[in-house]
Amino acid sequence: MRKETKEVVKTMSDFVNSFSSSNKKFTELMGREHRTLQQNFTKLCVAWFVHLSEVGEVHDLRNEASVKLGELFVEKLGDSIHLPLI
Known about the structure:
Blueprint: H1 3-17, H2 23-30, H3 35-54, H4 64-77
Helix pairs in contact: 3-4
């Protein structure tokens, strides 16, 4: 695993763990990034939902809603989950 990957996960974990984090501001700023970066970020989000759909019974009440959302996401989109790199 690349060191940068661990650093990004740590930074994102710190961000979402902060009670002062602003999802609205984050999405506004991400919306100003280069379109290819937006596409790659969306791929990351999709990969996260797919991962959640695969954890099965390995969750608890703290992330149960996230797992169910991941399962619903994959169920609804099925094989059409694909974002090309353009």
